Write a sequence for this structure.
């Protein structure tokens, strides 16, 4: 399965009643596809998955798959720290018709490397969909080490990893030692170009909500051998990326999308909206893109 190069970890729009806003989801999907997004990750962390009920996840995935209608791949965030629940949600996502699933490293219960290997392998073998691993120790405490990633890459339908460790040595070794068809994505917007230079395939991005065309142009330029242009784009969007992560994600990107006229609404507790000073800081950097 080829997931493409610029994937957006899509926010989940909410209305004033704290319910999923499906009308605005249509607008958001069309906007993303028209502005550089080549694949959508739904109900991931940026989609506020910890605050979505099981039924909300299924309803939202069903809606997204139907509305996207194969224009781009749809990957469902079905990972958790409960293997049985992850299997159940992954199977339901497969029945809905998603194109792949993304599994985050199990948080809070701090499994060993062998525990994580068994966790991911068990989920992958319960479905036929392609699987993307998600390595983000900053949120989960645990991280997949090289040897575990290499073992998991041998599982038939584990085909990719979203790497958000920030460890370029680890990422370089993963790219070098996994099969040529194993896909490595940057999970950090500010590391897209360095990871491309190491042989990575693209990115699962948050900032692409706002600078998707620029990210797409950067990847195309680098792939075409125009490193100068790719570097210039990375330098130009770096302040935007920093501003969009100035508060717990996705508070800032939702604020920026609302300012652009995409009414994605608030974030759910325990996340909170930006305060006035934080809004001003984002406006100073991102305002020209509204």
């Amino acid at each position: 399965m080829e997931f493409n190069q610029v994937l957006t970890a899509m926010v989940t729009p909410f209305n004033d009643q704290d319910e999923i806003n499906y009308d605005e989801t249509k607008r958001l999907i069309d906007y993303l596809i028209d502005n550089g997004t080549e694949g959508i990750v739904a109900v991931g962390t940026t989609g506020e998955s910890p605050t979505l009920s099981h039924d909300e996840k299924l309803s939202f995935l069903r809606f997204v798959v139907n509305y996207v209608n194969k224009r781009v791949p749809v990957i469902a965030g079905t990972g958790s720290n409960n293997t049985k629940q992850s299997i159940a949600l992954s199977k339901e996502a497969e029945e809905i018709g998603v194109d792949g699933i993304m599994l985050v490293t199990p948080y809070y219960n701090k499994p060993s490397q062998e525990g994580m290997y068994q966790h991911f392998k068990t989920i992958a073998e319960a479905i036929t969909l392609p699987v993307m691993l998600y390595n983000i120790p900053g949120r989960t405490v645990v991280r997949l080490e090289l040897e575990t990633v290499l073992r998991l890459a041998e599982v038939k339908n584990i085909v990719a990893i979203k790497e958000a460790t920030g460890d370029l040595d680890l990422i370089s070794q993963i790219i070098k030692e996994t099969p040529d068809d194993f896909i490595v994505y940057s999970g950090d917007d500010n590391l897209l170009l360095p990871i491309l230079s190491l042989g990575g395939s693209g990115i699962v991005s948050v900032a692409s909500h706002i600078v998707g065309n620029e990210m797409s142009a950067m990847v195309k330029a680098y792939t075409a051998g125009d490193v100068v242009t790719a570097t210039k784009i990375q330098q130009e969007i770096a302040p935007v990326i920093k501003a969009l992560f100035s508060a717990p994600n996705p508070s800032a990107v939702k604020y920026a999308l609302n300012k652009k006229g995409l009414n994605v609404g608030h974030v759910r507790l325990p996340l909170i909206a930006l305060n006035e000073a934080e809004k001003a800081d984002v406006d100073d950097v991102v305002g020209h893109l509204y």
